[in-house]
UniProtKB/TrEMBL annotation:
The keyword Oxidoreductase does not apply. Keywords: Disulfide bond, Electron transport, Redox-active center, Transport. It comes from Aureliella helgolandensis. InterPro entries: Thioredoxin-like_sf, Thioredoxin_CS, Thioredoxin_domain, TPR-like_helical_dom_sf. The gene is trxA_1. Transmembrane segments: none annotated. Pfam families: Thioredoxin (PF00085), TPR_19 (PF14559), TPR_20 (PF14561). Gene3D superfamilies: Glutaredoxin, Tetratricopeptide repeat domain. One of its GO terms (biological process) is cell redox homeostasis. GO terms for cellular component: cytosol. It comes from the Bacteria. This is Thioredoxin-1.
Length: 282
């Protein structure tokens, strides 16, 4: 059994839920499944314990001797030791098996703490946006290609009307030659937002006066999408895809996809019109 400190504790099957699952609601918990007879465990254990002291509360190290934690080891599907699990909010978020050198373990811990900090920043976006921005900007400067950080930062900037700053982030990530889905969603929101000031009634009048002018019909579809009249916009887009598939219809298809991206996940409108669009295309 290891010596206990403020940041290192021993657990048993009887206390495992409280020591690990409940404690992980308050912060990062690292569980080390080990045994006295295991030579690699005796190598890794002191490394983990030393890091727990170094980080001074950055995480709680819970030592789980497999002799007194057989049920917990089974629940975590431990097939060999040492086996180390990171638990946050009652869920295993990462793990590794076998001994690793201290720099590699430290890097693993840093990654987990960064993940925890990012989660906290996302939770603060509405209640404490300034604090969230400080955290997100700090992480983004460290890893400017990480869309998991860039997307919430860009969304925050966009929600505050700081569109130019948001676009800078998008353009920087686009230099890689691709965008992740979460960044495609932000880009779509920027595109739609740029159409919010279009005079819908003027566009409607122009389109009504020239029903066979596909560009004017598309302008109306854009204006409607910019004013969040999505269903009306979709109907015009479908008509354009049907009548002018490879020209204005292609722009209409792309507009629909942009709206699909910004609508809430599981939206019935998305499901309905994605199906209608697919029927026209295929």
């Amino acid at each position: 059994m290891s010596d206990e400190t403020q940041w290192v504790i021993n657990t048993t099957d009887a206390t495992f839920e409280q020591d690990v699952l409940l404690a992980s609601q308050q912060g990062l918990v690292v569980v080390d499944f080990w045994a006295e007879w295991c030579a690699p465990c005796r190598t890794l254990g002191p490394i983990l314990e030393g890091l727990a002291e170094d980080y001074q509360g950055g995480f709680l190290l819970v030592k789980a001797d497999t002799e007194t934690n057989q049920a917990a080891a089974g629940e975590f599907s431990v097939s060999g030791i040492p086996a180390v699990f990171a638990v946050l909010d009652g869920e295993v978020v990462d793990s590794f098996q076998g001994a690793m050198p201290e720099p590699q373990v430290r890097q693993w811990i840093n990654s987990l703490l960064r993940q925890r900090e990012l989660k906290a920043a996302k939770e603060m976006l509405e209640t404490s946006p300034d604090e969230a921005e400080v955290i997100l900007r700090s992480q983004w400067l460290e890893t400017p290609d990480d869309a998991a950080v860039a997307a919430p930062l860009a969304e925050l900037l966009l929600s505050q009307g700081r569109t130019d700053e948001c676009v800078e982030i998008i353009e920087q990530l686009e230099q890689r030659g691709f965008l992740e889905p979460e960044m495609e969603r932000v880009k779509a929101a920027v595109e739609l937002g740029s159409k919010a000031d279009v005079d819908v009634e003027a566009a409607r009048a122009a389109a009504a006066a020239a029903p066979n002018d596909f560009e004017l019909q598309f302008t109306l579809a854009e204006a409607l999408a910019g004013s969040e009249q999505y269903e009306a916009s979709f109907e015009i887009c479908l008509d354009l895809v049907s009548r002018d598939r490879h020209k204005t219809g292609e722009k209409a298809r792309a507009l629909m996809v942009d709206v699909f991206r910004v609508l809430p996940e599981g939206s019935e409108l998305t499901s309905d019109y994605r199906r209608k669009l697919s029927m026209l295309l295929y």
